[in-house]
Amino acid sequence: MSQNKVQAYAQTQKSALSSREIEAMAFTKAALLLENAKNNLEDYDSYASALKFNQLLWTIIQADVVDKENKLPDLLKANILSLSIFVDKQTIQALADSKAEHLETLININKNLAEGLMTKPADGELPETARPKVAAGSAITA
Known about the structure:
The protein has a single domain (19-130), classed as Up-down Bundle (Four Helix Bundle (Hemerythrin (Met), subunit A)). It has helices spanning 3-15, 19-38, 44-66, 74-96, 100-118. Helices cover 69% and strands 0% of the residues. It has five helices and no strands. It is an all-alpha fold.
């Protein structure tokens, strides 16, 4: 199949998903890349690439949370920013010292966020329109 057909298929698939599902997929992809890096520590290029992908994802989150159009409650935005700062610090530590345990925390954060995004919001929780658009429409690729 040609690259153009693959890209068209991927774009069609993305358009059929909700923003929550797209966000969950981005966190899952980051977790899987980090998991693969954890299992292959001697390949520093793949290790660093996984961390850079994760950092890009979290940079998008940071930018979205501080956007004045973001309708999330201030406390939730502050909590997300705190978590993103922790992810930044953990990423720097992991890049400086390639050990599996440095990746484990990042993997768990991403998996938990992906799982949470895949659960259907209960009544009274934030509606789709009040949620940040973490990965929707962004060009995150590994």
